[in-house]
């Protein structure tokens, strides 16, 4: 049986491959080239509706400041945020200390560029259900009283909801297996508050900033739950940007993004709303080396390889 070669058929077969090749620019119906959107994301550490409002407002601000289209893309969990940054689906992400280190270790040249004023001295709080009988803890060594009680962290990859609380517990000889039953991972700071307030767990650890924010909003019942201990300070949340953005928007784009974040002004009503949603008075510069201690602790407990 004779075989025939049709050049036209080969061209048709190759067309789908060409169409699927990623492009830095697209062409509009009028023939003008448009820039690929600058995509931002964040670890899902709070209620999704609160995050959508916060990052949508920020995307609008950045788009006006940078002169490029900006999109916010939500992710399902902490690991998904790191993966999306690594593969290039997200150009810039609001990470916690641990996830920021994880992401930068997988993307050479990635930079920590900005943090809130509160993030250079961030803290976690331990909270307890009032029916647990646990009183306020004044000295770190007294964390041993938590042995034998039910306990929940936040997300497994949360700096303020897991990494640093576990680190301070270990300093006093308290290990996860010392808690009653299976140690919990609530998935978010808001969920930790809800679980401890409801009595699902007797004790939980979470971001002090989220605790204060929910307290001010009247979302916490102090007749049922209370803060029993506050950790020493550490570096935490920060923006990390992918070096590949320079290929699309120019060599100075990282500096332009950083300048836009630092420019957010509490005296401007619209910008103040963004800062308030972040729980910050302003953004300040940061750098990769600020998280060296976080990296060391992450490697020690096996969260960074």
In brief:
It contains 11 helices and 13 strands.
Protein described:
Strands 4-3-5-12-6-13 form a six-stranded mixed sheet, sandwiched between helices. A five-stranded mixed sheet has the order 9-8-10-7-11. It contains eleven helices and 13 strands. The chain has two domains: 36-120 and 236-300, Periplasmic binding protein-like II (D-Maltodextrin-Binding Protein, domain 2, 3-Layer(aba) Sandwich), CATH 3.40.190; 123-230, D-Maltodextrin-Binding Protein, domain 2 (3-Layer(aba) Sandwich), CATH 3.40.190. The protein has helices at 7-19, 48-66, 78-87, 97-106, 159-171, 189-198, 208-216, 245-249, 253-263, 269-278, 292-300; strands at 25-27, 33-35, 38-42, 70-72, 92-95, 111-116, 124-129, 151-153, 184-185, 203-207, 225-230, 238-241, 283-285. The protein starts with 6 loop residues before the first helix and ends in a 5-residue tail after the last helix. Helix content is 39%, strand content 17%. With 305 residues, the chain is of the alpha/beta class.
């Amino acid at each position: 049986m004779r075989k025939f070669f049709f050049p036209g058929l080969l061209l048709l077969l190759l067309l789908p491959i060409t169409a699927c090749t990623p492009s830095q620019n697209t062409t509009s119906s009028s023939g003008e080239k448009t820039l690929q959107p600058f995509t931002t994301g964040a670890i899902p550490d709070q209620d999704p509706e609160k995050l959508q409002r916060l990052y949508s407002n920020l995307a609008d601000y950045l788009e006006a400041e940078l002169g490029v289209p900006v999109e916010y893309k939500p992710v399902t969990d902490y690991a998904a945020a790191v993966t999306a940054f690594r593969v290039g689906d997200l150009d810039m992400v609001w990470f916690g200390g641990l996830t920021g280190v994880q992401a930068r270790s997988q993307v050479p040249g990635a930079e920590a560029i900005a943090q809130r004023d509160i993030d250079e001295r961030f803290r976690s709080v331990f909270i307890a259900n009032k029916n647990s009988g646990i009183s306020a803890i004044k000295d770190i060594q007294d964390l041993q009283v938590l042995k034998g009680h039910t306990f929940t962290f936040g997300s497994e990859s949360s700096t303020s909801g897991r990494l640093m609380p576990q680190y301070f517990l270990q300093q006093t000889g308290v290990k996860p297996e010392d808690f009653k039953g299976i140690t919990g991972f609530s998935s978010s700071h808001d969920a930790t508050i809800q679980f401890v307030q409801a009595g699902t767990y007797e004790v939980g650890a979470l971001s002090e900033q989220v605790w204060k924010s929910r307290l001010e909003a009247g979302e916490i019942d102090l007749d049922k739950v209370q803060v029993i201990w506050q950790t020493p300070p550490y570096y935490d949340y920060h923006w990390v940007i992918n070096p590949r953005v320079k290929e699309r928007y120019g060599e100075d784009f990282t500096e332009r993004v950083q300048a836009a974040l630092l420019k957010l002004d509490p005296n401007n009503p619209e910008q103040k709303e963004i800062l308030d949603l972040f729980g910050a008075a302003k953004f300040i510069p940061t750098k990769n080396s600020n998280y060296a201690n976080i990296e060391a602790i992450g490697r020690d407990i096996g969260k960074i390889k």
